[in-house]
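ok, trying the design again with the full structure, not the truncated one.
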């Protein structure tokens, strides 16, 4: 029987701070396929996440198909806005949420993983994070700082992370990120340069696939996911409307489950996808293929106000 077998493989998933996002779903799928998984967690969320895990508050989301529980080999504080610790401003380094986290930069985490597991010890690198401080502002009102910050944290971080991880990655390994349709179609409300960041991420996926493929035998792909009410998406403010709109208008008219993104990620990361690189794979129930709405979700309610348009 053809199955996804990641036994003996090791993965690092950057962007896991609770059990509600794509990063968690991907980590879970990779573990379910047999891989050892470490995660990178944004320092301000690190204490909360490790406490929730320790206290068993996430246990309902941890069971794997084989009856065991999802365990992480490590949970590393990671702020993808900084390549090296010296790039972090003094105010960040001394902030109480960062001060005792060691070297939380991209290079710092790669170094810690190298010390813990040794060179060429990883097969999968997943970038499942994004941050744009002005995401609620229309592009036309976005400041230069907000725009560059969104692109730096949400897109450049993939380049930086891949470079820092090169000594860690085994040949044949897979690099994966998460993108969104706003890179190529207008999604009113997804502002602050986040649409630009996703466009950069997709273009960089192709170039990195070529460069890292030739130099290190790695594959680089990105998943364009449909709307999902994660913590990050909920913070933007209109995710419920997006979920209902997608559900009503997709070729497969049902809401996307994060598990479906996890499964696609496990496939892309596995040897079964050895011929696939440089790709933007839509995991969105086919929403990207539509050129005309066929239905509108129900009228806005106080709980779900229509905030875009
Ligand atoms: N939820 C959606 O509708 C949707 C759709 C398409 C693509 N995506 C993408 O999926 C990815 C994961 O997002 P999600 O929706 O699962 O939400 P999420 O909240 O689970 O994940 C985002 C993570 O990014 C982390 N993060 C923020 N700033 C960071 C920084 N500077 N350094 C390190 N980590 C940082 C957050 O702590 C969080 O853990 C993102 O790239 C997002 O753009 C989401």
């Amino acid at each position: 029987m053809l199955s996804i077998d990641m036994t003996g493989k090791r993965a690092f998933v950057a962007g896991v701070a609770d059990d509600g996002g794509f990063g968690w779903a991907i980590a879970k799928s990779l573990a379910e396929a047999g891989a050892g998984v470490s995660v990178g967690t944004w320092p301000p969320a690190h204490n909360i996440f490790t406490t929730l895990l320790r206290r068993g508050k996430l246990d309902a989301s941890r069971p794997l198909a084989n009856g065991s529980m999802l365990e992480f080999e490590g949970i590393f504080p990671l702020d993808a806005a900084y390549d090296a610790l010296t790039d972090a401003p003094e105010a960040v380094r001394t902030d109480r949420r960062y001060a005792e986290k060691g070297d939380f930069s991209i290079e710092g985490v790669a170094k810690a993983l190298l010390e813990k597991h040794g060179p060429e010890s990883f097969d999968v690198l997943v970038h499942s994070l994004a941050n744009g401080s002005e995401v609620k502002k229309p592009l036309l009102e976005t400041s230069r700082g907000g725009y560059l910050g969104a692109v730096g944290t949400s897109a450049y971080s993939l380049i930086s992370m891949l470079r820092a991880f090169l000594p860690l990655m085994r040949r044949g390994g897979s690099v994966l990120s998460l993108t969104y349709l706003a890179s190529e179609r207008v999604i009113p409300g997804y502002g602050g340069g986040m649409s630009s960041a996703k466009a950069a991420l997709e273009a960089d996926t192709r170039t990195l696939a070529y460069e890292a493929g030739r130099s290190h035998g790695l594959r680089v792909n990105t998943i364009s996911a449909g709307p999902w009410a994660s913590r990050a998406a909920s913070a933007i403010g209109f995710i419920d409307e997006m979920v209902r709109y997608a559900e009503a208008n997709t070729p497969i008219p049902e809401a996307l489950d994060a598990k479906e993104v996890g499964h696609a990620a496990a496939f892309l990361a596995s040897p079964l996808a050895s011929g696939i690189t440089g790709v933007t794979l839509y995991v969105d129930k086919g929403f990207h293929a539509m050129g005309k709405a066929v239905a509108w979700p129900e009228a806005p309610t106080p709980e779900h106000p229509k905030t875009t348009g």
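Keeping the full-length input from now on. DSSP finds nine helices and seven strands in the chain.
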